[in-house]
């Protein structure tokens, strides 16, 4: 193998579709002394013909496994059957040989003209398929008869030399100077003639290329023209004297260069092209590198998928006829054959795709491709790609991204983590990797974490404090870090960040006394959490005033968290709220169930806190005093009305009306709001004649609207009630109309004997009430003279409810 023998036309960001390697080993040795003239490919081996008349069998690595001296002159074509057990060879001196590679059967013949082509039947191994065709000036079909003799039939002649042939299934396709023909070996009929387009080209210099895509699709390449032909069955009604099959050209297009070979690749085509270019210096035509293109055929044109220029040995001296394209269908291998070189092209696999991505420094995509196809890749490892990606990011200066990728790439490999941390230390980027270090599974050596903490301690106190808060204390040696912090405090003893961090380190080390002392020195609120969490109340008996001094909101926060926890301080809190924080006093009075109401009322009255006093009076049941205070102290009719609504007490509404009757603004407020709670007439009758009331008309209109709304609501409710009543009545009626089962298990509720007689032949009468109680008719009392209706004796005490009607069953 050697470095890739192709040169793309220009630097492209598109990934190539094929990869190339030169067929070496024995092939290199052969082509140093001889030149390749033809080759054919089997899934198991290769057969190479040379200009000196030799045929070599090669393995897929190019090693020689067998050699045949066929002729002293050029081998024109080699043909293998599908089994790979029989081979046909023809040469320029007219020799034709067909023989078994593993058996003694063979055919030898020498003709009086060069034989250009040979094709053995694809199933030659079968006794019924001992056939082959040869082509020189005419196309001959040879067939072995029942006496093991070979007989020949001329299939075609008279149109120049036969230069190309391909046999697939029951169809033989060949090309002569005039065009391409197809022969059906079963019907013994020639079914088509596809004429050559460009008759100006010499057919010996620009030979036709044929290949079968499948049993009915033939691809023809000649000059710069490509035709895709489909063999189809002719309908019985169209036959007459015509062949049973016909050919339809389904696609036809031109290519940029001369075609030397064709091969199918799924629904695409691989085309080997012979290229001639004009020299810019001499303005003369010269032979350029051949091209291997992958194209997508369309009906009248094609789309180029990829194009590679191949640097084959001796391309400067080669002609179009010197190149051949052979392929292995099973493995999508393509062999570019030239006199001095054989190059193998194959589809790129996932490893090749990753190679290209890495070459283009697309590490993220390479890593993703490897993860998706990890079962199929052979040469690459996900970890190696990931490490290369990290190195690339570091070289580019993207330290934070590189550190973040470590989490995914390094995973739980502690050794790799430690290796990467030291790499980051060498480039002075320990801070970049610190947020992403594993903290649980795995856990690195304590020295790694301590190294990073020391790095922060030297340059970033805030970052150091953040790590101490975020990292579990068992990751590093706590005493080492405590000593390092104390050493730094010797230089800067008042640094609050370091002091708070030291307190946290002491807390983790269960040295609560030192931690508490630091918090108290800093007057930091975290001291309360420390006290509660670790039950340090005995340590703060003499520090209560100090604690209250630097956190005056302590009791308030405690109450907000739990209304019952500090209940013994609620009386004290009333005075504190009244003195320092009145906005929170009323919410406290509403939420607290433990504060002494008399004490609270006394404090509020002393300070003339009207709203708080009103609330306390109402809560203590003195609503009339509370309402009077609203009206006399606050002069707020809306608040008074709202208070009366909340209490929903008729006497309060009366007090409110009496107080408001000589105050026009109060009357307006009452008229606007009283309608839904008290009859407005009570207020209107008491208004003195001649009193001017602001917005009286609007207030009266609102009263009428409210009244009208109440009427509408009542009517709507009435309609709903009637509809519901009717629906329920119908339901009850349907239920009562249903039959009631009466059998021998039922008894008369009066005489307690079975309801049905033992002798069913005797006539009897039974009365069944809707309450499901049953009686013999004779056991029921006679109905009164005033009413003919009968009622259940048992249920009549219940106001003649469920048994108010009866069902009578008679027989």
From TrEMBL:
Residue span, RING-type domain: 748-796
PROSITE patterns in the record: CHCR, ZF_RING_2
GO cellular component: clathrin-coated vesicle; cytosol; early endosome membrane; Golgi apparatus; HOPS complex; late endosome membrane; lysosomal membrane
Claim: Transport is one of the keywords in the record: yes
Pfam families documented for this protein: Beta-prop_Vps41 (PF23411), TPR_Vps41 (PF23556), zf-RING_Vps41 (PF23555)
Any one GO molecular function term: zinc ion binding
Keywords: Autophagy, Cytoplasm, Cytoplasmic vesicle, Endosome, Golgi apparatus, Lysosome, Membrane, Metal-binding, Protein transport, Transport, Zinc, Zinc-finger
Taxonomy, superkingdom: Eukaryota
Gene Ontology biological process: cellular response to starvation; endosomal vesicle fusion; macroautophagy; protein targeting to vacuole
Localization terms from the record: Cytoplasm, Cytosol; Early endosome membrane; Endosome membrane; Late endosome membrane
Membrane-related topology note: Peripheral membrane protein
CDD domains named in the record: RING-H2_Vps41
SUPFAM superfamilies: RING/U-box, WD40 repeat-like
Coiled coil: none
CHCR repeat windows: 527-669
Function as written in the Swiss-Prot or TrEMBL entry: Plays a role in vesicle-mediated protein trafficking to lysosomal compartments including the endocytic membrane transport pathways.
Family statement drawn from the similarity comment of this UniProt entry: Belongs to the VPS41 family.
Protein's recorded name: Vacuolar protein sorting-associated protein 41 homolog
Lineage: Eukaryota, Metazoa, Chordata, Craniata, Vertebrata
């Amino acid at each position: 193998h050697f470095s890739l023998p192709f040169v793309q036309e220009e630097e492209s960001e598109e990934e190539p579709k094929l990869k190339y390697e030169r067929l070496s080993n024995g092939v290199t040795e052969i082509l140093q002394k001889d030149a390749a003239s033809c080759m054919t490919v089997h899934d198991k081996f290769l057969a190479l013909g040379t200009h000196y008349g030799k045929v070599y069998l090669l393995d897929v690595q190019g090693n020689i496994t067998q050699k045949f001296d066929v002729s002293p002159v050029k081998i024109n074509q080699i043909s293998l059957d599908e089994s790979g057990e029989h081979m046909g060879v023809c040469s320029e001196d007219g020799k034709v040989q067909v023989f078994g590679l593993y058996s003694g059967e063979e055919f030898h013949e020498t003709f009086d003209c060069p034989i250009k082509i040979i094709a053995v039947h694809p199933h030659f191994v079968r006794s019924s398929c001992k056939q082959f065709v040869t082509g020189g000036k005419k196309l001959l079909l040879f067939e072995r008869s029942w006496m093991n003799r070979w007989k020949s039939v001329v299939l075609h002649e008279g149109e120049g030399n036969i230069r190309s042939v391909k046999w697939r299934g029951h169809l033989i396709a060949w090309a002569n100077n005039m065009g391409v023909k197809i022969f059906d070996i079963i019907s013994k009929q020639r079914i088509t003639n596809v004429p050559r387009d460009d008759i100006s080209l010499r057919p010996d210099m620009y030979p036709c290329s044929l290949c079968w895509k499948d049993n009915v699709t033939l691809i023809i390449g000649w000059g710069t023209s490509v035709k895709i032909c489909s063999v189809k069955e002719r309908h019985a009604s169209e036959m007459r004297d015509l062949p049973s099959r016909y050919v339809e050209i389904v696609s036809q297009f031109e290519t940029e260069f001369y075609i030397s070979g064709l091969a199918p690749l799924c629904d695409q085509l691989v085309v080997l092209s012979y290229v001639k270019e004009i020299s810019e210096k001499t303005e003369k035509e010269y032979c350029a590198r051949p091209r291997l293109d992958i194209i997508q055929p369309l009906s009248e044109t094609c789309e180029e998928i990829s194009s590679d220029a191949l640097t084959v040995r001796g391309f400067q001296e080669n002609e179009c006829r010197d190149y051949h394209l052979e392929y292995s269908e099973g493995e999508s291998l393509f062999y570019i054959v030239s006199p001095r070189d054989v190059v193998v092209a194959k589809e790129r696999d996932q490893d090749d795709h990753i190679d290209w991505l890495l070459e283009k420094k697309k590490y993220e995509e390479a890593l993703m491709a490897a993860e998706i196809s990890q079962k199929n890749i052979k040469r690459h490892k996900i970890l190696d790609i990931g490490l290369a990606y990290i190195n690339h990011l570091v070289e580019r200066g993207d330290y934070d991204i590189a550190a973040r990728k470590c989490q995914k790439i390094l995973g739980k490999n502690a050794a790799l983590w430690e290796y990467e941390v030291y790499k980051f230390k060498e480039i002075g980027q320990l801070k970049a990797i610190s947020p992403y270090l594993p903290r649980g599974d795995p856990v690195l050596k304590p020295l790694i974490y301590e190294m990073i903490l020391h790095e922060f301690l030297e340059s970033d106190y805030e970052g150091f404090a953040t790590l101490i808060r975020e990292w579990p204390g068992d990751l590093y040696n706590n005493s080492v870090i405590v000593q390092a912090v104390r050493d730094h405090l010797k230089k800067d003893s008042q640094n609050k960040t370091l002091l708070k961090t030291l307190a946290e380190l002491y807390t983790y080390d269960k040295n609560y006394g030192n931690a508490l002392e630091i918090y108290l020195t800093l007057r930091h609120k975290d001291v309360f959490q420390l006290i509660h969490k670790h039950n340090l109340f005995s340590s703060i008996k003499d520090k209560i005033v100090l604690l209250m001094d630097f956190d005056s909101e302590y009791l308030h926060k405690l109450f907000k968290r739990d209304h019952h926890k500090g209940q013994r301080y609620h009386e004290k809190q009333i005075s504190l709220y009244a003195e320092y924080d009145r906005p929170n006093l009323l919410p406290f009075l509403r939420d607290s169930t433990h504060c002494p109401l008399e004490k609270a009322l006394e404090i509020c009255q002393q300070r003339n806190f009207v709203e708080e006093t009103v609330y306390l009076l109402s809560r203590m049941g003195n609503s009339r005093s509370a309402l009077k205070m609203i009206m006399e102290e606050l002069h707020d009719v809306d608040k008074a009305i709202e208070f009366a609504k909340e209490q929903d007490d008729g006497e309060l509404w009366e007090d409110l009306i009496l107080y408001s009757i000589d105050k026009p603004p109060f009357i307006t407020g009452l008229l606007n709001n009283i309608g839904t709670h008290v009859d407005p007439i009570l207020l209107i009758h008491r208004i003195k004649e001649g009193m001017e009331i602001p917005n009286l008309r609007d207030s009266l209109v609102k009263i009428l609207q409210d009244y009208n709304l109440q009427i509408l609501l009542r009517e709507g409710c009435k309609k709903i009630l009637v509809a519901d009543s009717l629906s329920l009545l119908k339901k009850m009626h349907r239920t009562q109309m249903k039959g009631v089962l009466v059998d021998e298990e039922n008894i008369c509720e009066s005489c307690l004997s079975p309801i049905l007689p033992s002798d069913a032949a005797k006539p009897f009468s039974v009365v069944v009430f809707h309450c499901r109680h049953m009686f013999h008719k004779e056991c029921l009392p006679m109905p009164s003279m005033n009413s003919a209706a009968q009622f259940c004796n048992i249920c009549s005490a219940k106001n003649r409810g469920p048994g108010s009607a009866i069902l009578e069953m008679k027989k």
